[in-house]
């Protein structure tokens, strides 16, 4: 089974691409950070990402989702990975926790994900939501940090440039639809 990570900055269009991936029969594993934020906000916590335990909660949910993913189908596409969480910690000005570094070691040593990461580029805008409070300029800074994190852990970025959804889907499809090596 091949496990690809599809990632990018907030509002880069990953969700639209992932819907297409799921609609075309591939398994999709949802992002963890948004779920952690939504759960906390449902309990009336306004900014859970400011909590010291936030990064580790995201890492734990990512691990649970990865380990609990279906074994059906030859291709799984993950909406983000622990390397994204490393980029988020860096962006937030936090050091990487032991739990985060242990999970990154696990996914790299066990080769959980394909080394090629589908990196969806920023569309040039970012609409704030309750879970995403970042400006377009800040998202470009985060995009740079994100790319640096993946490269630092030995992943190759497959650039999915800004543009029409059909073109982006075609670029993703050309990678995930390749026959097993």
Q: Number of folding domains?
A: 1
Profile the largest sheet: 5 strands, parallel
Query: C-alpha Rg, in Å?
Result: 16 Å
Q: How many DSSP H or I helices?
A: 7
Could you state the order of secondary-structure elements as H and E?
A: EHEHHEHHEHEH
The fraction of residues assigned to DSSP E strands is 5-15%
What quaternary form is this?
Answer: single chain
The percent of residues in helical segments reads: 40-55%
* Total beta strand runs: 5
Instruction: Compute the separation of the termini in Å.
Output: 11 Å
Query: Spans with pLDDT under 50 lasting ≥5 residues?
Result: none
The helix-and-strand class reads alpha/beta
Write out the strand line-up for the largest beta sheet, numbering strands in chain order: 2-3-1-4-5
Mean pLDDT across all amino acids: 89
Task: Characterize the overall form.
Answer: globular
Can you tell me about this structure?
The chain is an alpha/beta fold and 181 residues long. It has one domain. It is built from 7 helices and 5 strands; from the N terminus they run E-H-E-H-H-E-H-H-E-H-E-H. It has helices at 14-23, 33-42, 54-68, 82-91, 98-109, 136-152, 165-176; strands at 2-8, 27-29, 75-79, 116-120, 156-160. Strands 2-3-1-4-5 form a 5-stranded parallel sheet, sandwiched between helices. Helix 6 links the parallel strand 4 and strand 5. Helix 1 (14-23) packs across helix 7 (165-176). It is globular and about 45 Å long.
């Amino acid at each position: 089974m091949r496990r690809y990570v599809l990632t990018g900055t907030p509002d880069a269009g990953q969700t639209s691409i992932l819907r297409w991936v799921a609609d075309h029969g591939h398994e999709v594993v949802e992002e963890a950070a948004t779920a952690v934020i939504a759960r906390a906000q449902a309990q009336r916590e306004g900014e859970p990402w400011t909590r010291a335990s936030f990064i580790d909660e995201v890492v734990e949910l990512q691990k649970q989702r990865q380990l609990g993913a279906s074994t059906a189908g030859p291709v799984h596409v993950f909406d983000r990975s622990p390397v994204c969480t490393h980029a988020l910690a860096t962006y937030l000005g936090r050091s990487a926790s032991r739990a985060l570094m242990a999970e990154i070691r696990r996914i790299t040593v066990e080769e959980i994900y394909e080394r090629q990461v589908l990196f969806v580029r920023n569309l040039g805008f970012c609409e704030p939501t309750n879970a995403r409070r970042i400006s377009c300029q800040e998202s470009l800074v985060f995009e740079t940090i994100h790319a640096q994190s993946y490269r630092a852990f030995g992943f190759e970025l497959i650039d999915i440039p800004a543009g029409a959804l059909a073109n982006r889907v075609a670029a993703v499809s050309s990678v995930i639809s390749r026959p097993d090596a």
